[in-house]
UniProtKB/TrEMBL annotation:
F-box domain span: 17-57
Upper classification of the organism: Eukaryota, Viridiplantae, Streptophyta, Embryophyta, Tracheophyta
Pfam families with a match to the protein in the record: F-box, FBA_1
Gene3D superfamilies in the cross-refs: 1.20.1280.50, Kelch-type beta propeller (2.120.10.80)
Record's protein name: F-box domain-containing protein
InterPro entries given in the database record: At3g26010-like (IPR055290), F-box-assoc_dom_typ1 (IPR006527), F-box-like_dom_sf (IPR036047), F-box_dom (IPR001810), Gal_Oxase/kelch_b-propeller (IPR011043), Kelch-typ_b-propeller (IPR015915)
SUPFAM superfamilies per UniProt: F-box domain (SSF81383), Galactose oxidase, central domain (SSF50965)
Length: 374
């Protein structure tokens, strides 16, 4: 008995003193748990936050596990940020280092931010990991009008990300210059001239080794950057839905799938159509159709009392769902059984206002928890 009792602390000491063995064990833990485990000791903290372990953990989890997404929501009433997790029945407040900011893009756990010190102050750009609360400032010194920035990050392929900065002149909205920031070398490449593309580079979605700019009522385009050959292509068509009433369209990426979601809105005849992009030929097919009447009936058919926040796309059909918001509640619509479940009820929280929508689609950003360094 004494031998068995003494072997446990001895084994723990062996593991704790062997960094290679400790790393092999910690690699299997989720990022959120590792953030808490930083407090175990200074040694653990330095190991978990080291760039080498962060890259190993990022690649390990992306290749072996399908990450469960969370959503970063910004209140349209208070401008406060909250984290919404599909398995947690409450909204967790989240605070950035900058008060005046805009999330330009969310890409596999990293955020591209436009920040100001004051409402009308100078714009600064950062890449942020909301899990580790780390920031990397992007120093721009191009001397031209910035038309937009986009980020590319695929941890299944590389632990490093790239940021594309598009600049141009006021009198020429179609000719642009692009410079690329590589987090691996922490440098900008020399400028390359590109033609075409949208006038403003906004709402880009990274998917299928390109950045897509989906325009819901017109021909869309994508920006290709394979083999350092940059260019825009305007051959991407988006699906349309015939509706007796108004339609609202949203484009989103979830777990490697591109979705074009159309809300067909008419009095007591409200549906949502989910189209999925096909990588091989750039076309769309109807993946899901959902009846929203059970939700709108709670508000006498007023669909304006509902906002779509995002889509949770999983390998198993029963795990895929849509995330909705109505005054005081965050709801999940599951495609497999067509059931609507209240995920979060915040009617008793200080930020609740009766009859008011707190969160809109433009202020909802899906992200995954990761230790990816910035």
């Amino acid at each position: 008995m004494d031998c068995k009792r003494s072997s446990s602390p001895r084994s723990a000491a062996i593991i704790g003193g062997n960094d290679d063995l400790l790393i092999e064990i910690l690699l299997f833990l989720p990022a959120k748990s590792l953030i808490r485990f930083q407090s175990v000791s200074k040694h653990w903290r330095s190991l978990i936050l080291s760039p080498r372990f962060s890259r190993l953990h990022t690649l390990h989890h992306r290749r072996r596990h399908q990450p469960r997404p969370s959503f970063l929501l910004r209140s349209s009433i208070t401008s406060q940020f909250f984290v919404c997790q599909p398995k947690v029945k409450k909204l967790v407040p989240f605070r950035f280092e900058y008060r005046h900011l805009k999330i330009l893009q969310s890409c596999n756990g990293l955020l591209l931010l436009e920040c100001r010190n004051s409402p009308y102050g100078q714009k600064d750009y950062f890449v942020c990991n909301p899990t580790t609360r780390k920031y990397q400032k992007l120093v721009l010194s191009f001397g031209q009008l910035v038309r937009g920035l986009c980020m590319v990050f695929d941890p299944a392929k590389s632990p490093y990300y790239k940021v594309f900065c598009f600049t141009g002149y006021d009198d020429d909205r179609y000719s642009k210059w692009v410079e690329v920031y590589d987090s691996g070398t922490r440098t900008w490449t020399e400028r390359v001239k590109v033609s075409g593309g949208p006038g403003q580079i906004i709402n880009g979605v990274y998917w299928n080794d390109a950045i897509y700019f989906i325009r819901t009522r017109r021909t869309s385009c994508y920006f290709s950057f394979e083999d350092d050959s940059y260019g825009f292509d305007w051959t991407y068509e988006t699906p349309r839905v015939s509706s007796p009433g108004a339609t609202k369209s949203h484009v989103m990426e979830s777990n490697g799938h591109l979705h074009h979601v159309v809300l067909s809105l008419f009095y007591y005849n409200n549906y949502v159509y989910v189209f999925e992009g096909i990588k091989e030929d750039g076309k769309w097919f109807l993946k899901y159709k959902a009846n929203l009447n059970p939700i709108s009936s709670r508000f006498d058919g007023k669909i304006n009392a509902i906002s779509l926040l995002g889509m949770i796309r999983r390998k198993r059909e029963k795990d895929s769902a849509l995330l909705f918001h109505m005054p005081g509640k965050i709801m999940v619509y599951r495609f497999v059984d067509k059931k609507i479940k209240v995920l979060v009820d915040f009617t008793r929280e200080y930020y609740f206002e009766k009859g008011q929508l707190q969160f809109l689609f433009r202020d909802a950003h899906e992200f995954i928890h990761t230790l990816a360094p910035v």
